[in-house]
Write a structure and sequence with these properties.
Strand content: under 5%
Shape: globular
CATH topology: Globin-like
Helix content: over 70%
Bound molecules: protoporphyrin IX containing FE
Largest sheet: none
Number of helices: 6
CATH superfamily: Globins
CATH class: Mainly Alpha
Number of strands: 0
Oligomer: single chain
Amino acid sequence: MTPEQVELVRATIAAVGEHPEFADRFYLRLFEVAPATEAMFGDLESQRRKLTDELVAMGELLGDLTTLDARAAELGRRHRGYGVRAGHYPVARAVMAETVREVLGDAFGPEEQDAWERATMLITELMQSG
Ligand code: HEM
């Protein structure tokens, strides 16, 4: 990813942070598309905040791949424990991009989308590498 793309991803995460409904919509849509995942979750209330906080932390680390790798691998190991498998990641990536588009509208343009796809691909690959 170029430094410009890293900045676009950080700006997108910051913009998403202005939309408290983002995480709600993400999980609603995820459970629609992949109903079996709903049973994996416990308290969704606290989960919403954890997801957005983690996105902020990872956005910051996009410029520091060694630390990002360690954090993502650790997160991915915990996800295996939750029952998350390889096939869930593309679904979650698609739902997340769709939800970002829904809350940001035109502000999530082609360049932002391209940068977003690269970042989420990188993060979810690192999550599965640990
Ligand atoms: C960009 C990718 C993802 C990020 C950043 C992310 C982030 C998080 C975070 C921060 C937590 C809180 C617990 C922890 O830190 O271990 C969590 C829990 C969880 N995530 Fe993810 N996640 C991602 C992808 C996925 C995918 C693909 C699934 C598949 C359905 C999933 C399912 C879960 C489940 C089941 C939990 C446990 C919830 C609970 O204990 O109630 N996540 N996730």
